[in-house]
Amino acid sequence: MVSKDGTELSISKDGTELSYSSSKGSSTSVPPTPRSEGEILQSSNLKSFTYNDLKAATRNFRSDSVLGEGGFGSVFKGWIEEHSLAASKAGSGIVIAVKKLNHDGWQGHKEWLAEINYLGQLRHPNLVKLIGYCLEDDHRLLVYEFMPKGSMENHIFRRGSYFQPLSWGIRMKISLGAARGLAFLHNAETKVIYRDFKTSNILLDSNYNAKLSDFGLARDGPTGDKSHVSTRVMGTYGYAAPEYLSTGHLTSKSDVYSFGVVLLEILSGKKAIDKNRPPGEHNLVEWAKPYLTNKRRNFRIMDPRLEGQYSMARAIKAANLALQCICMDPKLRPNMNEVVTALEQLQDSKDPSINDEKDYPPIRRGQPTNGLRYCRSSVAGETRAKVAYPRPSASVHYA
After folding, report:
1. What are the residue boundaries of the Protein kinase domain, all occurrences included (predicted)?
2. Containing H/E element for 178?
3. Could you give the 3-state DSSP secondary structure of residue 139?
4. Which residues contact 59 (CB under 8 A, 6 or more apart)?
5. Which residues are documented as binding site for ATP?
6. 140 forms bridges with which residues in the sheet?
7. What pLDDT is attached to residue 309?
8. Minimum mean pLDDT among 196-200, 317-321, 361-365: which range?
9. Using CA atoms, how far apart are residues 29 and 220, in angstroms rounded to an integer?
10. Which end of the chain is less congested by CB atoms within 10 angstroms, N or C?
């Protein structure tokens, strides 16, 4: 199957084991790792809705209530009472988003269950709140908090005189919030690897606070002395780390690569994959890397709609961070805690490491990098091998 933007996606055809990973800092007391569907549903801190509840809350799933559509199904706007969570009249109570699963077989059910498995337990300001679910006959639905600003994708790529482009400050705020969400997942006692980090999965509240959504492809990270989890390739082409595409070896650094791609999208206003761009520019990472390695050419990747909103020092620091994240060697990528620290520094106008009055010096081999590892493939003048990005072969996914 092909997504609505024409991108091919790959989904595991084998049975994905579901388990729960607790996290330091989580407000939830976590039971032993559930594996069966019954255990997952019983251990989740969620409301079990009937189909009629959600039918009433969404005004019978009316077409004018649709918030979005994807491979998973359609998302509808609805209303429920604040305390009882019973369906309420339109315009009263709490606004919710109801995702209705298409009847597309076992794979869709597994993703529905994975969403409950993770978001039914994990709580963090930068993860979307899952309120409840419906499991009735062949109906599979999920009920979330409503995110008024929609997805990051809808804001960053919109063009036209009617749309106000996101400012530099808001883009950096969203980047930091999304990074904190990933860092939270990676700091779990058993790491949670998100596996499908992209702009369409970053939702925004009324104040542009970022929250990660869609955990259908999330997976527990490696445990013990294991360095990775071996899986079939899953996710979205253009965002997936090259070593994961070629080997199926999944680590938290796979998410870091995806974050680097999204950061490039945020800085440039360009999509990760866009065949409408001129030849040689279809793949954002391949097009941007030559500019990222030269501080005097960094400005060429920047979204022209941001002109005058940022200092060159901060633009170069952000570009360097993106370059670290998309390093071909996953060992040289920063971890998400380091990414969060770097983005926090970018937001701090008094940070002495950023001199807005002078040119920001490029990172050189052996130079301290504020805790970030240096990506050897980005050294100016160094020979870089052309990397082939294997294209996934099938797709089953939702937006």
Report:
1. 61-354
2. helix 168-186
3. strand
4. 65, 78, 90
5. 100
6. 135
7. 92
8. 361-365
9. 18
10. N
| CATH number of the domain located at residue range(s) 34-145 in this protein | 3.30.200.20
Query: What is the C-alpha to C-alpha distance for residues 292 and 319, in angstroms, rounded to an integer?
Result: 6
Backbone angles phi, psi at 88, to 5 degrees: -125, 175
Alpha helices in 76-167 (DSSP H): 106-119, 152-156
Phi first, then psi: give them for residue 340, nearest 5 degrees.
Answer: -60, -45
Q: Distance between CA 212 and CA 223 in Å, rounded?
A: 24
Residue 133's Cβ-side half-sphere holds a number of Cα atoms within 13 Å equal to: 22
- The verdict on whether 205 is a catalytic residue reads no
Which residues contact residue 369 at a Cβ distance below 8 angstroms, ignoring those fewer than 6 apart?
A: 324, 363
Core vs surface per residue 233-255: b (16+ CB within 10 A) or e: bbbbbbbbbbbbbeeebbbbbbb
Of 53, 137, 138, 196, which is the active-site residue?
196
As to burial, measured by CB atoms within 10 angstroms (0-12 exposed, 13-18 middle, 19+ buried), residue 30 is middle
Torsion of CA 24, 26, 27, 31, to 10 degrees: -80
**CATH code for the part of the protein at 150-378:** 1.10.510.10
Higher pLDDT, 272 or 296: 272
Domain ranges of the chain: 34-145, 150-378
Contacts of 352 (CB under 8 A, 6+ apart): none
